[in-house]
TrEMBL record:
Coiled coil: none annotated. Signal peptide: none annotated. This is NEDD8-conjugating enzyme Ubc12-like. It comes from Trifolium medium. It comes from the Eukaryota. Residues 1-38 form the UBC core domain.
Length: 45
């Protein structure tokens, strides 16, 4: 969990964001963990 691996992902969409835009990936993780939307998916707190 500390070092996500985009070469062998469970979530291919998240892996693509990590590979192409690590800052956006970090922002998405923070938003999901705090409770909110990432794309069209809602993550409850």
């Amino acid at each position: 969990m500390q070092e996500p691996n985009y070469e062998d992902p469970l979530n291919h969409d998240a892996a693509a964001v990590l590979r192409e835009n690590p800052k956006m990936f970090e922002s998405n993780v923070r938003r999901a963990m705090a409770g909110g939307y990432v794309g069209q998916t809602f993550f409850p707190r």
